[in-house]
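Predict structure. Input: Mediator of RNA polymerase II transcription subunit 10, 128 residues.
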Amino acid sequence: MSAAPAPSALGQALEKAIWELHQLEKIIELGAPSDERVIEKIEDFAQTLPALREAAEKCDDVEIPVELLRDVDQGKKPMGFMINQILAAGTVNETVKGKANVYREFAEALKGKLDGGEKKAGAKRGKK
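Output follows.
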């Protein structure tokens, strides 16, 4: 069994920011003993943001479909979105393949007619 890949700088920065945000949420949810504790956790979270921004800038541009973010926001699993997209692509591919096959057959038939027409025209010229 292979070892898990080393987490990227962006992944680590995301985990740290999410962890700090999670802790802040729990403190507020359970009723913070004081406002100072909440402010301290907000500051801890804010301190993670520069590292997150720096790590994100080092990454290539990544495009994330809005639908995926919406699904995650609604508590759905990202893998389900990916599976649905793959299945939809398969359906489109089947449709396109059918059209491509018809087009290929049409092009071959047309080429055959043109080749046959050229042979007949050449034969007529030879008879003169």
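Helices lie at 9-30, 35-58, 66-73, 78-127.
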